[in-house]
Every structure is written in C-alpha cells, then in structure tokens.
C-alpha cells in the first residue's frame, strides 16, 4: 500500500531527492566496537518533536559526512523491512558491522509512510502489536531498545470493531473481560467453548511470554531454554503443529461463531482459522489484551526511522537508500559472499541476509541464479502460495461532515472490519469483499491538520485484476474501486463520508509490487493446503551456505511483530555462525541444526 511515485515526485521532487541523498552514508570496513547500548526498556518516554517525513529522514542520520557504500561488512541486508531492521539492529548492538541496502527512498517496507499536503499516511501496517511494556513478546519495543531507542505510543481501547453478516457487531476491547462478555452475550450457549478456545490462546501466549525469544535453529539456545522453562517448551510443542481452526472446532459447535473465528484469523493471516497456525493465533489473540494495540505517535513510519537512526549510530553500520540489489554473489565453494547492486557496485559480506520475499530471492527472476536454487525451495513452493495483495484507499476526510454517523453507539474506533456476506470473505473482487478500515487520527491528531481525519481503507485484490490495462483503464478501475468502497462504508458505517473527502489516492496490487518490491504485491506467503501449524515454515538459514532469509517468508510469517521475531532469530543465528556469540562446537551445532531442519522438512 504505497504511494504513487509519479505523484510523489510531481508534488515534491526535491524532498524525495534529499531523502535519497541523505542516506548516501557509509562506514569504515573493519570490525566495529559494540555500541553503547541498549536503553533500558523501562526508560521514561520522551515525546519527540513532530517533523516532516523528509526532515525526519534527514534527522535519522546521525552522521554528518556522507560516505560511500562499504566494500565489505560482516552482514549485508537486502531490504529494510521490519525483519531486516530488527536483525541489523541486533547484530549492530552485538558489535557486527552491517550494511542495509534498500531499493526505495525510505525504510520500513510494509511499515513505510508517505506525506501529502500536511497529512502523514501509513503506507501499510497500522494495527501494531508488540509494543507492550512487559514480558518478552513485546518485540517492537525490544527492537527499538536494542539500539537505544524508544517511541511514545497511544493505547487503543478497542483493537477492532467487526461489522459482519448476521448482524454480528463485536468490539474487541483491550480489556479481555469486556471482549469476552460481548462475545458471550451474543453466543450465550457457547460460553464454555469461547472460554476454552481463547483460554488455549492464552496458554500459548503465556508460554512464549516467559522465555527469551531467539533462534530455534541454534541448539545451544534450545537446550538452555528447555532447561530453564521445561513446562512452557512442552506446552509450545503441544501447539506448534496445530492450527487455530482445529482447536476452535474442539470446543465450539455454533457455525456463526466459527465463521467469526475465521474472520478473527483472516483479518491478519488472510486465511481462515483452519490454515492459521495456533502459535500465531495465540500471540495475536492474547497480546492485544496484554501489551495491547498501541499506535506510535507521529505514525507507524517512526518505528523504522528510529531503528535506522540507531543502526547508524553504531560504528561500522550504515543504511543506504536507492540501493537496489540485483543479485547475490557466491565464492568458489558455492557460499554466498556478497551482493551486486543494479548500479554495478558490490558489497562483500560474511553473511548475506535477504529480506526480499522467498519468490523474489529464489524465484524465476530472483536474486539467486536458477542453477544455485536448492531443492528445499521447491518444497517451500509446494506448501506455500502467495497471498493476494490489497487495493488501498488513502483519504483525507473532514471531521465535520462525518458527525452525522458518529453517534455514541456507532463510535469512532480506530480500526473497523466490515463484510456484507460470509461467502465473500476471501474471494470477492472489485471492492466487494472484506474491508479493513484504519483511522489513525482517532488516536494521534498530529498526523493531519486540525479538523481532519486520515482514512486508510483496504481490501484484498489480486495483481491479475490490474494487468493489461491501458493507463486510462487503470485510472478508471481505481476510480471504480473508490466509488464502490466509499458507497459501502457510507451505507453501513460513515454516512456523509463521500462529501467529507478532501482528497484521496488509490494504490493497487501493482503499486504494492512496485514500491514494496514484493512479487505480485503479495501480503506474504500463506499455506497452500492444510499444514501442521508452524512446523514446516522455514527458519532463517537457507540451504545455501552463508545465505539467510528474514521477514515474512520465514518463521513465524506475516506481521510486524512476527517479522521482528524473525529478525531477532536471524541475528542470533548469524551471530553464532560468525563467532560473535558462543554456540555449541561447530560440527555438533551443524549436526543438530541439520537434523532439526531435515525432520521439519519431512512434515
Ligand atoms: N498491521 C500489520 O502488522 C501489517 C500490515 C500490513 C503489512 N504487514 C506485514 O509486515 C510484514 C513486514 O515484512 P518484511 O520484514 O518481510 O518486509 P517488507 O516487505 O515490509 O520489506 C522488504 C523491503 O525490502 C526491500 N527490497 C526488496 N527487494 C529488494 C532488493 N532487491 N534490493 C533492495 N531492497 C529490496 C523493499 O523495498 C522493502 O522495503 C509483512 O508481513 C507485511 O505483510 C503488517
Ligand atoms: C524444537 C522446536 C521447533 C520447538 C521447541 C518449542 C519452542 C521453544 C517453541 C518456541 C516457539 C516460538 C519462540 C515461537 C514464536 C512465535 C512468535 C513470536 C509469533 C509471532 C506472531 C505474530 C503475529 C502472527 C502477528 C501478526 C499480526 C498481523 C499480521 C497483523 C496484521 C493486521 C492487519 C492486517 C489488520 C489490519 C486491520 C485493520 C486496519 C482494521
């Protein structure tokens, strides 16, 4: 869901140019001293002054003199999504030299942003998990703290309000008891089942939330975590091969309630409960009541801006924009040893980490040449497919015109999910399926001028719907999507919306493909068939020596908090491989890791 570059350049070319130039920064080549890090997690919040996106980008660079791309680093990252930034920050904090190469002009990938006429829009992610203060699952708070950063957030009292068929109007309150009371009121005959299903989610979450979260393919860590938390580990083993739908069906019989649970899963995993791993459901359905959903003041883009600033404060570490990688380089042993950019420049590295999707890394036109793609990637493609992309509407809306629809009962919650017909949940095209609505100005007024709201509305959409159109037809299709979606929202949620819109922009699956560098603009990999929970999702190592993946193509999948986990896990495995942290003796480590991978791949 990202901006149209032509419009962006038309509106403010210098700004984007400046942003690009601001990041032509580099570093000395030798191994760096560890940063003076990290800030304690309980450090007092500091409200940062609001700055424009361009200025904020310039400010993220703590280094005054632009320096060129490094020739060699410990770890080079392809892309700067949340997975890569977390891993880079963690490695930087451990003393490794890192270079992050991002093809776009700002960091964050799906958690990026753009500005128009004094409005700051979130390009993608807007409902943020993992920003809590307690436990170990608050991985975004931790990713920032790794490089000494922290962001002020606004707690959201309601995670989401569902407006579903069968007049199912459910608010997911931050307070668990309030959410449960609302659901039980609607399905009193299923009280026991509801408590059992969501109770199982808590059981998963509590087990995760008591242990340090690192790489599951680092046997030394696994042994330690088993020794320190045996009950929690055994409990996780009980759930790791299961899907949420199976557990829901163990306890619940009412078909409408089961459809609601499908929607609860679909709203973030884009597959129904049957295909949604229970570990992930446990995280999402519990963290929203534990750490809560918290909106970062100044917009979602602040997270990646701050992590970038933190990385750049570490010796030997840098982040580069307009730095598109065209291929991964290999040495004579077949191990990855660096990357080549589209401009012909190269960076050598002891570890190469791809934050591009699996398809963009190993696919037909991917970063790894066909003859080097290992057979395990074929197995991945047998199990996972690309989810659809989204069509996104970004709208600046006058508060005044909306008052008609904003009765106390209707409420102005930040996030809404709307569906008119259960059969349309996954399949409907042309804006007739599930609508996701995010109005971040409900929580943070600073994103828009006084009296204005930001609406980000999106719906699943496939790239094939947008291919083969002339320029005129493409524009007309965007217009038609806008009309259909606004009409649906006016009818059910926001009367007066149409006339309150000051301006709008529509992003298609093609927009996502282009600006996120994601194949077909896909939201991420989803199970092709019913799989044993998370068991067959690849970890960070690949079958190519010294080449790692990070981000939503790796365990545990989509979501900022999930990709932050993959980042921590990746940094841990890479640090062990580079000898930065201790691990079991090499051959034993390799034997155990391979054994674990082989067993998982059979599943
Ligand atoms: N509310 C939410 O939490 C929410 C909402 C929307 C999306 N998401 C999810 O957030 C997750 C974040 O994903 P992620 O960490 O895997 O990454 P990402 O897709 O967000 O970022 C990848 C980055 O890599 C860059 N890139 C790709 N190929 C490149 C190349 N060849 N050279 C240089 N740069 C290149 C892209 O420009 C992009 O910035 C995704 O799962 C996404 O679906 C979450
Ligand atoms: C040996 C073995 C293998 C094992 C052993 C046992 C153990 C130890 C285990 C462990 C495990 C672990 C650690 C795990 C972990 C996990 C995790 C961390 C997970 C996470 C997850 C998360 C997630 C999934 C999240 C997500 C989210 C999302 C996606 C969101 C989204 C949202 C949306 C899109 C919505 C929007 C809406 C509106 C706007 C309305």
TrEMBL record:
Amine oxidase domain mapped to chain residues: 85-487
SUPFAM superfamilies given in the database record: FAD/NAD(P)-binding domain
UniProt pathway: Carotenoid biosynthesis; lycopene biosynthesis
GO cellular component labels: chloroplast membrane
Keywords: Carotenoid biosynthesis, Chloroplast, FAD, Flavoprotein, Isomerase, Membrane, NAD, NADP, Plastid, Transit peptide
Biological processes per GO annotation: carotenoid biosynthetic process
Reaction catalysis annotation: 7,7',9,9'-tetra-cis-lycopene = all-trans-lycopene
Compartments, as annotated in UniProt: Plastid, Chloroplast membrane
Molecular function terms, GO-annotated: carotenoid isomerase activity; oxidoreductase activity
Any Pfam family: Amino_oxidase
Topology in membrane: Peripheral membrane protein
E.C. number(s) listed in UniProt: 5.2.1.13
Cofactor annotation: NAD(+); FAD; NADP(+)
Family to which this protein belongs: Belongs to the carotenoid/retinoid oxidoreductase family. CrtISO subfamily.
Protein name, as recorded: prolycopene isomerase
Lineage, top ranks: Eukaryota, Rhodophyta, Florideophyceae, Rhodymeniophycidae, Gigartinales
């Amino acid at each position: 869901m990202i901006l149209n570059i032509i419009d962006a350049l038309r509106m403010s070319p210098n700004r984007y140019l400046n942003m690009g130039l601001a990041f032509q920064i580099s570093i000395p080549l030798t191994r760096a001293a560890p940063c003076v890090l990290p800030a304690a997690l309980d450090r007092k919040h500091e409200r940062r002054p609001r700055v424009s996106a361009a200025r904020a980008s310039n400010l993220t660079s703590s280094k005054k003199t632009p320096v060129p791309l490094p020739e060699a680093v410990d770890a080079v990252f392809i892309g700067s999504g949340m997975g890569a930034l977390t891993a880079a920050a963690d490695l930087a904090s451990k003393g490794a030299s890192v270079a992050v190469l991002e093809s776009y002009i700002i960091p964050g990938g799906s958690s990026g942003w753009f500005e128009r006429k004094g409005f700051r829009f979130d390009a993608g992610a807007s409902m943020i998990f993992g920003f809590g203060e307690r436990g170990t699952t608050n991985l975004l708070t931790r990713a920032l703290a790794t490089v000494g950063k922290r962001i002020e957030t606004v707690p959201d009292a309601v995670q989401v309000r569902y407006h579903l068929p069968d007049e199912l109007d459910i608010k997911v309150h931050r307070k668990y008891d309030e959410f449960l009371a609302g659901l039980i009121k609607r399905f009193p005959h299923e009280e026991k089942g509801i408590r059992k299903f969501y109770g199982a989610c808590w059981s998963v979450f509590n087990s995760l939330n008591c242990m340090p979260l690192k790489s599951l393919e680092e046997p030394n860590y696994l042994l330690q975590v088993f020794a320190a938390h045996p009950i929690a580990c055994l409990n996780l083993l009980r759930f790791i091969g299961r899907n949420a739908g199976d557990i829901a069906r163990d306890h619940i019989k009412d078909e409408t309630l089961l459809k609601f649970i499908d929607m609860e899963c679909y709203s973030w995993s884009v597959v129904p409960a049957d295909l949604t791993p229970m570990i992930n459901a446990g995280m999402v359905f519990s963290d929203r009541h534990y750490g809560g959903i918290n909106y970062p003041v100044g917009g979602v883009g602040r997270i990646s801006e701050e992590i970038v600033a933190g990385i750049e404060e570490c010796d030997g570490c840098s982040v580069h924009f307009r730095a598109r990688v065209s291929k991964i380089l290999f040495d004579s042993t077949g191990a990855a040893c660096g990357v080549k950019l589209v401009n012909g420049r190269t960076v050598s590295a002891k570890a190469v980490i791809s934050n591009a999707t699996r398809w963009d890394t190993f696919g037909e036109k991917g970063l790894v040449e066909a003859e080097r793609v290992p057979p395990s990637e074929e197995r991945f493609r047998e199990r996972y497919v690309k989810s659809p992309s989204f069509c996104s509407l970004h709208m600046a809306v006058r508060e005044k015109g909306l008052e008609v629809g904003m009765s106390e009962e209707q409420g102005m919650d930040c996030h809404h999910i709307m569906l008119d017909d259960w059969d349309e949940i996954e399949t409907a095209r042309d804006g007739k399926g599930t609508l996701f609505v995010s109005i971040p100005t409900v929580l943070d007024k600073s994103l828009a001028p006084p009296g204005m709201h930001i609406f980000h509305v999106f719906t699943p959409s496939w790239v094939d719907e947008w291919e083969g159109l002339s320029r005129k037809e493409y524009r007309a299709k965007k217009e038609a999507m806008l009309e259909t979606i606004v009409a649906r929202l006016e009818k059910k949620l926001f009367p007066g919306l149409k006339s309150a819109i000051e301006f709008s922009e529509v992003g298609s699956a093609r927009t996502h493909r282009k600006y996120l560098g994601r194949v077909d603009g896909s939201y991420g990999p989803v199970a092709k068939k019913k799989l044993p929970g998370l068991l067959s999702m690849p970890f960070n190592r690949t079958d190519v020596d010294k080449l790692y993946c990070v981000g939503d193509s790796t365990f545990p999948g989509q979501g900022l908090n999930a990709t932050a986990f993959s980042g921590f896990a990746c940094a841990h495995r890479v640090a062990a491989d580079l000898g930065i942290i201790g691990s079991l003796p090499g051959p034993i480590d390799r034997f155990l890791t391979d054994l674990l991978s082989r067993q998982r791949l059979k599943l």
